[in-house]
Description:
By secondary structure, the chain is mainly α. The chain is built from two helices and no strands. Helices cover 58% and strands 0% of the residues. α1 runs antiparallel to α2 (36-60).
Amino acid sequence: MTDEAHPADGVDVPTSGDSEVDAALERLAELDEQPLRAHVSAFDAVHAALQDRLAQAEGQSQ
Length: 62
């Protein structure tokens, strides 16, 4: 396969400055190394982590 088939290869994972969000981004960046069956559970876990972090941030701003 070409590098175009795997755009995440060799690309730096962006950072947000929030450790929980950055951990979620890192987990997504590692998906290329995981079997396709693992992607759904990883997406679910990342989605839940980001929802939790958003809820925490909204609670802090009130």
